[in-house]
TrEMBL record:
<comment type="similarity">
    <text>Belongs to the thiolase-like superfamily. Beta-ketoacyl-ACP synthases family.</text>
</comment>
<dbReference type="InterPro" id="IPR014031">
    <property type="entry name" value="Ketoacyl_synth_C"/>
</dbReference>
<dbReference type="InterPro" id="IPR014030">
    <property type="entry name" value="Ketoacyl_synth_N"/>
</dbReference>
<dbReference type="GO" id="GO:0004315">
    <property type="term" value="F:3-oxoacyl-[acyl-carrier-protein] synthase activity"/>
</dbReference>
<dbReference type="InterPro" id="IPR000794">
    <property type="entry name" value="Beta-ketoacyl_synthase"/>
</dbReference>
<dbReference type="GO" id="GO:0006633">
    <property type="term" value="P:fatty acid biosynthetic process"/>
</dbReference>
<dbReference type="InterPro" id="IPR016039">
    <property type="entry name" value="Thiolase-like"/>
</dbReference>
<protein>
    <submittedName>
        <fullName>3-oxoacyl-[acyl-carrier-protein] synthase-1</fullName>
    </submittedName>
</protein>
<dbReference type="Pfam" id="PF02801">
    <property type="entry name" value="Ketoacyl-synt_C"/>
</dbReference>
<dbReference type="Pfam" id="PF00109">
    <property type="entry name" value="ketoacyl-synt"/>
</dbReference>
<dbReference type="InterPro" id="IPR020841">
    <property type="entry name" value="PKS_Beta-ketoAc_synthase_dom"/>
</dbReference>
<dbReference type="GO" id="GO:0005829">
    <property type="term" value="C:cytosol"/>
</dbReference>
<comment type="pathway">
    <text>Lipid metabolism.</text>
</comment>
<feature type="domain" description="Ketosynthase family 3 (KS3)">
    <location>
        <begin position="1"/>
        <end position="393"/>
    </location>
</feature>
<keyword id="KW-0808">Transferase</keyword>
Length: 395
C-alpha cells in the first residue's frame, strides 16, 4: 500500500457547466434541484437525448491574440478561467512562484476534435479551410498549448487523456510533481465540449438515454452527455484552504467499455486513496460517485459502495444535474465535492426515484444538510482507468 502523503492546499477553484458559471451558480442550482440538462439542440442530425450544454460559446470567439487556438473547447476554457477570479489567482501564483515553477496539467478526452470535424465537413480542394487549418487545433494537446500561452506558465505542461478519469488523474500527477520538488504549484484544467463524434459514438454503443439520465435508478437507461470546464490551483500552503488529502489510481484493463464485474479497479483506487489520505471508510462523510446511469457501471459501483462503506456514509451521483462531462467530469465533480465541504450539504441524486438495491442505504436521493469534513470523488473511465480523490476541510 502507498504511504500517507502531506495534504496540499486548494487555494482557488471554479467550474463552468450547464448549471452556470462559477461556484455560486453551481451551489444555487444544486440547492434548488435545478438540472442543467435539456433536449438535444446541438446536433444538426436529429438525436433524441438530453444534453448539458453551456450557452453562448458559438458567439464568443477567443481574443485576437489567441485566434489560432479558437475552438469550442478553448472558448469554454477561456470562459471558465474568468469565473471566481481564477485567472487572477493563477497569474498571482505564477508571479509568486515563478513561471518555471508552476505546472500546467490538462485533462480532456476529446480536446478540440469538434474543430477537426468541422474542418473535414468543409474541405476546400481536399484541404482544411484556412480558418481551421492551424495545427494546434488538431492535436490532443490543444487545450494545454492554448492555456500555456494564455497563462504564461513555463513549467511542466502535459495532457492526460484517460477517458472519464482524465481530469481526476491530473490531481495525482500534480501531487507527485510538487512532492518531488519539481514545481511549487500546479494549475489543473479539465475541459471537454460537446461534439458530434462523442454524441453519436456513445449512441452507437447504445449507452445514451433518450431522456435525462437517472443514476442508480433501477429503471436507468443510459448517460446524458454534457460539457464543462473546471480549474483548481494546488499549492503546498494556503491559510483556510480546503485540502487534497490523497488519491488512488488503477488500470484494470478488463474491457474497452465495460467495468470489471467485481469492481477490482475501483476497489484498488479507493484503497490507495484511503492509504495516501491516512483515513478509512468510516471517516468519509460524502462520496461523489461516478454514477453514469448505465446499467453495468452503476451496478458495479453500487456493489463496491455497499461492500466498502458503512450504511451511514452518504453518497450520490450529480450527473443528473450536469450530464456526463467526460474528460472534465473528474474536476467538475471534485469542485462539487469541495462545495459540499464548504457549504455543509450533500447533493442528492437528481431524477432517481427507486435506487439500486445494493446501495439504497447509502444513496442520497434528496439533498441533505449535514457537515462534510471528508469527501471522496470517484472517476472510473473506459478501459479501467480509475481514480478516486480524497478532499478535506481547511487545516
Amino acid at each position: 500500500m502507498p504511504s500517507r502523503i502531506p495534504p496540499l492546499a486548494i487555494t482557488a477553484y471554479t467550474a463552468t457547466s450547464a448549471l452556470g458559471r462559477g461556484r455560486h451558480a453551481h451551489v444555487e442550482a444544486l440547492r434548488g434541484r435545478r438540472s442543467g440538462l435539456r433536449a438535444n439542440d446541438f446536433t444538426t442530425t436529429p438525436l433524441a437525448c438530453a444534453i448539458g450544454r453551456v450557452d453562448g460559446l458559438e458567439a464568443s470567439p477567443l481574443p485576437t491574440e489567441w485566434a489560432a487556438h479558437d475552438s469550442r473547447n478553448n472558448r469554454l476554457a477561456w470562459l471558465g478561467l474568468g469565473a471566481d477570479a481564477f485567472l487572477d489567482a493563477a497569474r498571482e501564483a505564477i508571479a509568486r512562484h515563478g513561471a518555471g515553477r508552476v505546472a500546467l496539467l490538462a485533462g480532456t478526452s476529446t480536446a478540440s476534435i469538434g474543430s477537426t470535424e468541422a474542418a473535414f465537413r468543409s474541405l476546400e480542394d481536399g484541404r482544411f479551410p484556412a480558418a481551421l487549418a492551424a495545427p494546434v487545433l488538431h492535436t490532443p494537446h490543444s487545450l494545454g498549448l492554448f492555456l500555456q500561452e494564455a497563462l504564461g506558465t513555463r513549467g511542466p505542461c502535459s495532457t492526460i487523456a484517460t477517458a472519464c478519469s482524465s481530469s481526476a488523474k491530473i490531481f495525482a500527477q500534480a501531487e507527485r510533481l510538487i512532492r518531488l520538488g519539481i514545481v511549487d504549484a500546479a494549475i489543473l484544467a479539465g475541459v471537454d465540449t460537446l461534439c458530434g463524434s462523442v454524441l453519436f459514438g456513445f449512441n452507437a454503443l447504445e449507452l445514451v438515454s433518450p431522456d435525462a439520465c437517472r443514476p442508480f435508478d433501477v429503471a436507468r437507461r443510459g448517460i446524458s452527455i454534457g460539457e464543462a470546464a473546471g480549474f483548481v490551483l494546488l499549492e503546498r500552503e494556503g491559510a483556510g484552504a480546503p485540502r487534497l488529502l490523497g488519491y488512488g489510481e488503477s488500470s484494470d484493463a478488463h474491457h474497452m467499455s465495460t467495468p470489471h464485474p467485481h469492481g477490482l479497479g475501483a476497489r484498488l483506487a479507493l484503497a490507495d486513496a484511503f492509504a495516501r489520505a491516512g483515513i478509512d471508510a468510516r471517516e468519509v462523510d460524502y462520496v461523489n460517485l461516478h454514477g453514469t446511469a448505465t446499467v453495468k457501471n452503476d451496478e458495479v459501483e453500487a456493489a463496491v459502495l455497499a461492500d466498502m462503506f458503512p450504511p451511514t456514509t452518504r453518497a450520490s451521483s450529480t450527473k443528473g444535474w450536469t450530464g456526463h462531462t467526460l474528460g472534465a467530469a473528474g474536476i467538475l465533480e471534485a469542485v462539487i465535492s469541495l462545495l459540499a465541504i464548504e457549504h455543509g450539504f450533500v447533493p442528492g441524486t437528481l431524477n432517481t426515484e427507486v435506487a439500486e438495491p445494493a446501495c439504497s442505504a447509502q444513496l442520497a436521493l434528496a439533498n441533505e444538510e449535514r457537515a462534510v469534513r471528508v469527501a471522496l470523488s470517484n472517476s472510473f473511465g473506459f478501459g479501467g482507468n480509475n481514480c478516486t480523490l480524497a478532499f478535506g476541510c481547511a487545516a
